[in-house]
Every structure is written in C-alpha cells, then in structure tokens.
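Exam revision sheet. Question 4 asks you to relate a sequence to its structure. Input first:
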Amino acid sequence: MAGIGPGVIERLAVIGVGLIGGSFAAALKARGGVRHVVGVGRSAANLTQARELGVIDATASAADAVRGADFILIATPVGQMEARLAEIAPHLDARAVITDGGSTKVDVVGAARRTLGAKVAQFVPGHPIAGSDKSGASAAMADLFVGRRTVLTPIAENIAHAVNRVREAWQLCGATVVAMSAAEHDAVLGITSHLPHVLAYALMHQVLSAEQRGLLLDNAGSGFRDFTRLAGGQPEMWRDILLSNRTALLAAMDGFDASVAQLRTAIEQGDEAALDRMFNTAREQRDAWLMRFNGNVSQHGAEG
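Answer key, structure tokens:
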C-alpha cells in the first residue's frame, strides 16, 4: 500500500546515499520492504556505484526524487539538512512521510519547522545509533541496523500514522526503536557519542602539535590506535554535528573536565584507594554494559 500506513514502500527517496542512507535502502530491499529506490547525492561517481551495487534503482535531483515518493530519508550531514528540506518542500506529496538520520535533533527540528510549514507534520525526526569508519555507497550494509537502536524524536505536529510508518520501517531494518524528546536525545548523544569524538580529535591534535610527534607516533601502540579511531570520521560530518549540538556538548565537556580533575587530584596526592575505587567501578560497569550491548546485538544476529 502506498502512502502513510502499513505496507511496502512504493517509492523511497534517499537523499544522501552513504553509509546510513545506503544501508537503510539495502536493508529494506533485502527484506522486501520497498519496491523502488531513488538516490540523490552530490557525487555522480558514488551514485553510479550505488546503482551498480543494487543499493538504489535510479538517480534524480532532490525535487524529482521526492515527487510521488511515499517515504523520504534525508541522510546528509546535519549542516546540509535545512537546505535539503527547503529544496524538497514544494514538491512533497501529501501522503509522503519524511525522516532523517541526523546525529542531532534540536537543530534539525528547528530547520524542519522553518522550511516545511504545515508539512512539518509529515516529518518524523530520527537517528539510527549505528555506524562505521567507512563511508559512501560501498559501505552500505543490509544488516547495519540489526540489533542497534534507532531513536525517534516525534514532534507535537506529527500524526500517529507518520510516526508508526517510520517506526515500522526501522523495525523492518532490524533496529530496536525507542522514543525521546529532541533535547533529551542531544544531551544523551552529547555525552555518549559526540564527546568521545572530541576527545579522540583532541588527543590526535596534542600529539601532532608536539615537537617529537614522529617519535610519539612511531611508538604508539594499540591503546592509542583504539582511542583515536574516532578521529578517522568524516571531518565535515563531525564539524556539523559538534557545532549543531554545541550546548549539550559543552555541558558534557564540563562534566568530563570535572572527572579529569578528580583523577588528577588523586594522582597528585598519590591516593591509591581513590584510584582503585574509580578504576574498579569503571571497569565493572563497562563490563556489565558490554554484556548487555553484545547480547542485544547477537540476539538479533548482527556482526560486530
């Protein structure tokens, strides 16, 4: 059935055919959840590859892609979101459901309200908490979202059918769907996702700014490699995310500074008992979280 409501998506427009957008299309195709996928992007080479891989069926401009589409996913960096919403707004079918994959939500909701007018009721903000250090259509994986969470942050204007349609699509991709407010989402992700990226970039910057950078890098081991893995993310995407979520991120950085200050005091004072308490608590709670996390993923058959 086309349009809002349960059933197969007749025409899916994916604006931004990278890891998230490509994997969403691939997942729905693998599970028979979509009949035709139109891809939109800035790179002709990437779109050609997406077609060759079977991730999308056709390419078009954003305006042409959304005409007649009953489901639209905007999977661009958040800094491009407002311009893309404004571009497609005049061409949206009244039946169409729109969602996004942006890592911040307060700014995206604001952009949707500014650009979509009354059609904002058709826009259900979302964020799949899944990723990879790879990008582009070649990184698309049909099982990327299996066992992972997708957060929806419905807005007051949404009608229930639109929210249900988006929830059903992500569930068909294998995701566990949860809901929270946009502000709560940004505060949570500011600590658990955005702050770790800031720290990875900061450590790389510290090492690269040192006089003995060559010596440091030549003698860096797996701990440095694992900690700085997040600094391998797409610079444009992470610049946009961090600036978009600056209020929540700055609060998270303040909290981290307080934790580092607590550790610094214990080290300065040679307080073995305090260090033992903090380290043991961190280790035990991380192990418990990993068991829950890995259990949820394996339960749904995902890898890694």
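Marking note for examiners. Confidence is low (pLDDT under 50) at residues 1-5, 298-304.
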